Amino acid sequence: MRDNRKESFLAELMKRFFNDDVTGMSAELAYFFLLSLFPFLIFLITLFGFLPLSEEDVLSFLAQYAPEGTMLMIENILSQVLNTQNGGLLSFGILATIWSASNGIHSIVRALNKAFEVSESRSFFAARGISILLTFAMVFVIIVALLLPVFGHEIGLFIFSLFGFSELFFHLWNAIRWVLSALILFVVFAALYLFAPNKHLLLKHVLPGAAFSTIGWIAASAIFSYFVTSFANFSAMYGSIGGIIILMIWFYITGMMIILGGELNAAFYKRHSAK
Question: What pTM was estimated for this model as a whole?
Answer without folding.
Answer: 0.79
